[in-house]
Design a protein that fits this description.
Blueprint: H1 2-14, H2 16-39, H3 45-60, H4 67-72, H5 74-87, H6 96-114, H7 119-131, H8 133-140, H9 145-163, H10 168-185, H11 190-204, H12 212-229, H13 237-245
Length: about 250
């Protein structure tokens, strides 16, 4: 029995990213299946609202009264609506997007750990992220939080990779990846976008090497421009003003 366990662990350690992904996906689909079977696909008002909105969209398109809400959450609602339209109104279909996003988050955690630790430690840390109760629950329901966590974890992973590179080609690839990830986050939640851009700008200030000024310039540009294009003002100043007067807005 012990030998079997050791062989299994060694096999999982050879492919920690895949192992964590499938573990996370299995757990999330089990929870999502329970919600679909016993709670009609939703537990709270938020996930019920998203579910009904996606169904209405696939039947009639975006209605005038829902346009603003849809556009502010399009990074979440459009993938869910697309997969629901392609696969049809089947159980678990609408839950696939958050479940996969939650699984990718666990993989990103594993990959970040793998940069600094052994594969076994990375596998353990990633497995904890895969089965963390709060992560499992919110990633199993039709909520955009799982995509936000996915975007943030992938941004951290991309920034770590980018910071290690000195070649011009790698610098360009990293800048494009960071822009894409931050841009996608802007379609999910504005105040999280602003915090992310501030964190990226602060992190690039610690970098050393030939490309330091260029890294800081790209990060500063993202902080100034992306929140502005998303409607949060230059460097998210409008969000900061709202926060100063109360976060209920």
């Amino acid at each position: 029995m012990r030998d079997y366990f050791v062989r299994l662990l060694n096999g999982l350690c050879k492919h920690p990213l895949l192992s964590v992904f499938f573990l996370a996906l299995l757990v999330r689909l089990l929870v999502a299946g329970t919600v679909v079977a016993f709670f009609k696909g939703s537990l709270f008002l938020d996930d019920h609202t998203y579910l009904e909105l996606v169904r209405a969209h696939n039947l009639k398109g975006v209605q005038p009264g829902d346009g603003l809400f849809w556009n502010s959450n399009r990074g979440f609602l459009e993938p869910v609506a697309f997969i629901s339209k392609v696969l049809g109104e089947l159980p678990l279909v609408t839950h696939l997007v958050p479940a996969v996003a939650g699984s990718v988050t666990a993989v990103a955690v594993t990959a970040l750990l793998k940069r600094h630790t052994t594969s076994a430690v990375a596998l353990g840390g990633g497995s904890l992220a895969a089965i963390l109760p709060s992560q499992v629950l919110w990633s199993s329901l039709l909520l955009k939080d799982s995509l936000i966590w996915m975007s943030l974890s992938l941004t951290a992973l991309a920034l770590a990779w980018w910071s290690d590179r000195e070649a011009a080609r790698d610098f360009a690839i990293g800048a494009i990846a960071m822009t894409g990830l931050v841009g996608y986050l802007s379609t999910l939640r504005l105040h999280t976008l602003v915090v992310c851009c501030i964190a990226v700008a602060a992190a690039t200030g610690w970098r050393r090497g030939y490309w330091r000024i260029q890294f800081m310039a790209v990060a500063a540009t993202l902080l100034l421009v992306v929140p502005w294009l998303a409607g949060a003002g230059v460097a998210g100043i409008d969000i900061l003003r709202l926060g100063a007067s109360g976060l209920e807005q």
